[in-house]
Amino acid sequence: MKNPNEKAEMHQLANQIVVVTGANRGIGKAIAKSFAAEGASLVLCARNGDSLEEVAVELRSNGTDVLAQTCDVSKEHEVERLFDAANKRFGRIDILVNNAGAFDGGRLDEVSLEAWNNVIGSCLTGTFLCSRAAFLLMKERRSGRILNIGSISAQRPREGSGPYAAAKFGVWGLTQAIALDGRPFGITCSCLHPGNVRVERRIESGKDSDDEPMMESESIARAALAMVTLPADVNFLEAIVLPRDQAYLGRG
């Protein structure tokens, strides 16, 4: 538990309950650590329970209250189980960060239905299911923030990225729909579009495209923190964060 003598006002997320999906590595892990440092209590989920628990143990050792639960966000019953557990543990949810996702692609005629469903399920269906569950809890309190992690692929796709581009275009559209639906209930929804991030998938891939300029996950975490710590009546609707030297405008 946190030190009771610590001044809560020094932390931007003191007393906030935050759900982060896909929190076992990459951007999700960086966001979890950043938000923990700002005083949040965390509900973390991922499909890989072992690596998720490693993150949870690290955060708990630094005094953060963490509920970690294995969850495939594309499965309705698992999402409902996660949010039921979060509500029982903390009584509310203040912030949801929809970060969980998957990447697969190839030329359209080479993309299998299995690959398509995996990406759409993780990136888009998961964002819908988690947002719906959080919305139901936030609506009761007439307060809450939902931050969706999109991608610059939602605006300028690369060749051979049909499933991922479609999923992230969908996330951006869903973000706007949630923002509209949330207005009467004090719920804001925004979308953060990262460019190239040096996450484990890229490090391990060996692809030429992964030799492009990269930024660290911590840079995205800093942007995410800025977006969720604005006054309650302000919505930082959309942000694009990418390496200075990455080809984006006119990229191939």
> What spatial order of strands do you see in the largest sheet?
3-2-1-4-5-6-7
Gross geometry: globular
Element order: H for helix, E for strand = EHEHEHEHEHEHHE
What is the CATH first-level class name? Alpha Beta
* Average pLDDT: 92
Structural class: alpha/beta
What can be said about the biggest beta sheet?
7 strands, parallel
The portion of residues assigned to helices is 40-55%
Helix segment count?
7
Distance between the termini: 49 Å
What Rg do the Cα atoms give? 17 Å
Taken together, the total number of domains comes to: 1
Low-confidence stretches: 4-8
Determine the CATH topology: Rossmann fold
Strand content: 15-25%
Give the beta-strand count.
7
Second-tier CATH architecture: 3-Layer(aba) Sandwich
CATH H-level homologous superfamily name: NAD(P)-binding Rossmann-like Domain
What can be said about this structure in brief?
The chain is an alpha/beta fold and 252 residues long. It has helices at residues 26-37, 49-61, 76-90, 113-141, 162-182, 200-205, 217-228, and strands at 17-21, 41-46, 66-70, 95-98, 144-149, 187-194, 238-241.
Give short descriptive properties of this protein.
252 residues; alpha/beta; Rossmann fold; 7 helices; 7 strands; 43% helix
Helices and strands in order, then pairings?
Blueprint (H helix, E strand, L loop, with lengths): L16 E5 L4 H12 L3 E6 L2 H13 L4 E5 L5 H15 L4 E4 L14 H29 L2 E6 L12 H21 L4 E8 L5 H6 L11 H12 L9 E4 L11
Parallel strand pairs: 1-2, 1-4, 2-3, 4-5, 5-6, 6-7
Helix pairs in contact: 1-7, 3-4, 4-5
